[in-house]
Amino acid sequence: MSDKNKYFNRITLLKIFDGDELLVDDAINSFAETLPDLLNPWEKSFKIKDTLVLARSSHALKGAVLAFGCDLLGVKLSKLDHLCRENKPWDEIKEAFHDCWAQIKILILEIKNWNFKRVS
C-alpha cells in the first residue's frame, strides 16, 4: 500500500518515531501482535452486551490506535466509549461498534500489507 493508507502513513509514523524506519516497523509488528489481546475483550463484551467492559476496552483500544496516529479511529472509539458510559440505547451503541469494527478491518488490512523494511 502507498503512503495514502487510511490509517498507517509512513511519513506520519516516521515523525512519531523520530525518523527511524526500523523502529516504525518494529512498532507496527508489535502492535499487530498485541491487537488480538485488545480486540478479544472488545468483541466479547459487545456480543454479551456488557457496556461497562465495552467502554473500558474501547478506551484501551483508542489509546493504542492513537499512538500510531490513527486519529479517525480514535475518535470513533471515543464515541463508542462515551455511548456505553452514558448508557445510551443499545441500537446507538451497536451502530457505533459496527462503525468502529469496519474501520478496524481496514487497519488490520493495512498492517497485513505494510511494506516492512526488514523481516523481524
Short description:
It is built from five helices and no strands.
Give a verbal description of the structure.
This protein is an all-alpha fold and 120 residues long. The protein has a single domain, classed as Up-down Bundle (Four Helix Bundle (Hemerythrin (Met), subunit A)). 73% of the residues lie in helices and 0% in strands. It is built from five helices and no strands. Helix 2 (21-47) runs antiparallel to helix 5. The two termini are 19 Å apart. The model has no long low-confidence stretch (mean pLDDT 89).
Mean pLDDT, all residues: 89
* Oligomerization category of the chains in this entry: single chain
- CATH architecture tag: Up-down Bundle
The portion of residues assigned to helices is over 70%
Order of helices and strands: HHHHH
Rounded Rg: 15 Å
Mind describing the biggest β-sheet? none
Beta-strand residue percentage: under 5%
How far the N terminus sits from the C terminus, by CA atoms, comes to 19 Å
Question: Keywords for this structure?
Answer:
single chain; 120 residues; mainly alpha; Four Helix Bundle (Hemerythrin (Met), subunit A); 0% strand; elongated
